[in-house]
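<instruction>
Derive structure tokens from the sequence
<data>
Labelled lines for chain and fold
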Amino acid sequence: MSAHPLFPRHGDAASTDTHSGMTMDMGGDSSMSSSPMMMSVFQNSMSTALFSSRWTPHSTGTYAGTCIFLIILAVIFRGLLAFKSWQETRWLDKELNRRYVVVNGRGTLAENLSRDSLAKGAMVVSENGVEENVLLVRRRTPCARPWRLSVDPLRAVIDTVIAGVGYLLMLAVMTMNVGYFLSVLGGTFLGSLLVGRFISLSEH
């Protein structure tokens, strides 16, 4: 007497459960084995794409050219930082000089300085028997400078270009290619060697 299809025998049910469990385990193992590893390691492949799949070196010459490009880009980045530091100093000098422009009907430079909070007091300087009256001027603590149409848009453009070049260098390093990484470091060293003395500490 055969069992009804809706009521399988106990042995058949057990074998069915075992088979389905093995299938699930095998599926779980396959999904685990197919998942990519989250560990980043350096590699020295010469066919590593840079910024785009179309920019993929296919020979030693193109790979060397890509590394040279990264060196130049890193040098440009340091040059942009030096340019911004120089420009900020220039803007600050112009702003401070603007304070003491002599206008008809206004006080002289000495009078303006005596009323300004930068002036701390009068002093007498003596050198080689000659005495001169001078006014000690000290720089105040840094404060927010006024927004100027001739300064702030240009500052925003410079900051945007610096950020863009910096992110491109970061993407090159994130490829984990040894050659690209060393090229960025080499360009940074060369750029600092050339213009590092012009970069203020706040720009590093």
Observations:
- Confidence is low (pLDDT under 50) at residues 22-38.
- The beta strands are 119-127, 130-137.
